[in-house]
Amino acid sequence: MENLIDINGQAQVKLRTPAPKKPVPIIIIGAGGIVRDAHLPAYTSAGLEVFGIVNRTRSKAAALAKQFSVPHVFDSVEAAVKAAPKEVVYDIALMPDQYLATLQALPDGATVLIQKPMGESLDEAAALLQLCQQKKLTAAINCQLRYAPFVHVARQMIDQRLLGEIYDMEVRLTTYTPGKFSRMLPSTNDWKSSIIPFIIWI
């Protein structure tokens, strides 16, 4: 049963977004740290099936597949597409300069989740949009904070007008990035790709 939160006796809101009524298998393209530390644990926690992992370095994909009990490993997108179930979601967890080639390799009409950012420039974002439209892809950029429990609750409170009419909003983000990770982000673009999703969360 869905957990509800009581708001000062005035209304009840749901803590989490509803689970999919008809979940479909997932093929993850990429086997880096974000897949190991975020995507696979989240899918496991949600009870979603990961059909396979794709990576050019097959051993990296195989190691993650073993750790998370994923049944299939592929070293190319083409091989994964050939073996994919009829209904599947492709989770592209690569660097932005690989998005266009990866999307080209997917079948027309595929369902795709693309890791942020949507390219490194407006021109790249426009090219991605055009390709998704040409191939009739059902595609989304991974701005997962929009579905975080506290954002989900805040959105319901706004919709139910529990906060009155909103004229202005201030968001404070407090985060901790250890020094070793800070040194891994040398350019401004690296920071922008992480900060933008915090701006568009509502």
Blueprint (SSEs and pairs):
Blueprint: E1 4-7, E2 11-14, E3 26-29, H1 33-46, E4 50-54, H2 58-68, E5 72-74, H3 77-83, E6 89-92, H4 99-105, E7 111-114, H5 122-134, E8 138-141, H6 149-159, H7 179-182, H8 188-199
Parallel strand pairs: 3-4, 3-6, 4-5, 6-7, 7-8
Antiparallel strand pairs: 1-2
Helix pairs in contact: 4-5
Which key phrases capture this entry?
2 domains, alpha/beta, Rossmann fold, two-stranded antiparallel ribbon, 8 helices, 202 residues
**Overall morphology:** globular
Q: Mean of the pLDDT scores?
A: 82
N- and C-termini, Cα separation:
26 Å
The low-confidence runs, each spanning 5 or more residues with pLDDT under 50, are none
Which range best describes the helical content: under 10%, 10-25%, 25-40%, 40-55%, 55-70% or over 70%?
A: 25-40%
Tell me the count of domains: 2
- CATH superfamily heading of the largest domain: NAD(P)-binding Rossmann-like Domain
Say how many strands there are.
8
- The topology string of helices and strands comes to EEEHEHEHEHEHEHHH
* Widest β-sheet, arrangement of strands: 5-4-3-6-7-8
CATH overall fold name of the largest domain? Rossmann fold
What does this structure look like?
It is a single chain. Helix content is 39%, strand content 16%. It has 202 residues and is an alpha/beta fold. The chain has 2 domains: 26-145, 3-Layer(aba) Sandwich (Rossmann fold); 146-199, no CATH class. Strand 3 (26-29), helix 1 and strand 4 form a beta-alpha-beta unit. Helix 4 (99-105) packs parallel to helix 5.
